[in-house]
Amino acid sequence: GPKVLQIPSHQIIDMGQMVTLNCDPVSNHLYFYWYKQILGQQMEFLVNFYNGKVMEKSKLFKDQFSVERPDGSYFTLKIQPTALEDSAVYFCASSFAGGAEQFFGPGTRLTVL
Amino acid sequence: GDSVTQTEGQVTVSESKSLIINCTYSTTSIAYPNLFWYVRYPGEGLQLLLKVITAGQKGSSRGFEATYNKETTSFHLQKASVQESDSAVYYCALGEITNTGKLTFGDGTVLTVKP
Question: Omega before A106 cis (within 30°)?
Fold first, then answer.
């Protein structure tokens, strides 16, 4: 079936540095999402993105977070600067429509030291 | 806000036995939400198992069933006879019927099927 890819699979960085997580969504999908899962906790919605704009974001989507998808390339989540509490697995998802089935990537494990 | 509760963190069942994984939900929306079961098999990404968008309806896939019960606000996952290949992590999720597609997940239930 359709696949969402995430690059890299693991990322280790020092606190205060910038990090960019990359997502290659399903090719004809129009809606894009990021979810965050801290070890042992629920997977939580961060943000969704459609037509070049953020449609909805949660309280977890801090000012240090940003998303973009320039010219149909990767859908990215940038964190600048990173903090210790940003350590988690970040899952990207995409869907053809807002209420349609979301296809998830395998996740990027981010460790902030 | 919305919340989803899965009471069992881990479930172990012998092959060919029946299974039930409990899920209850809560929402502040006046409209009935969409309900989902997602599954993550070992080494793979999260994938949709089944979805029900109408209260009172039942969804089914790969031998699994779940009925949307608005009276008890439940969406339990059941299977009459499990197989070893069903071993995975199962997540119940709620989606509001808005255009944003935001999903609220439960904690997940690790299912281990013993041969």
Answer: no
| Closest-CA residue to B33 (of B103, B94, B91, B102) | B94
B24-61: pLDDT as tens digits: 999 887 778 899 999 999 888 899 999 999 999 999 99
- Mean pLDDT confidence for A88-109: 92
| pLDDT, tens digit, 9 for 90 and up, residues A101-113 | 899 999 999 999 9
| Per-residue tokens: A85 | 């509490």
- What is the spatial distance between Cα A70 and Cα B14, in angstroms, rounded to a whole number? 50
* pLDDT > 80? residue A72: no
Q: Are A109 and A7 in contact (CB under 8 A)?
A: no
Q: Could you say which of A1, A91, A98 has the minimum Cβ distance to residue B101?
A: A98
Q: Which residues of A touch B51 (CB under 8 A)?
A: 101
Distance CA A9, CA A71 (A): 23
Task: Kindly state whether B42 is in contact with chain A, defined as any CB-CB distance less than 8 angstroms.
Answer: no
Lookup: tokens for B49: 């198992």
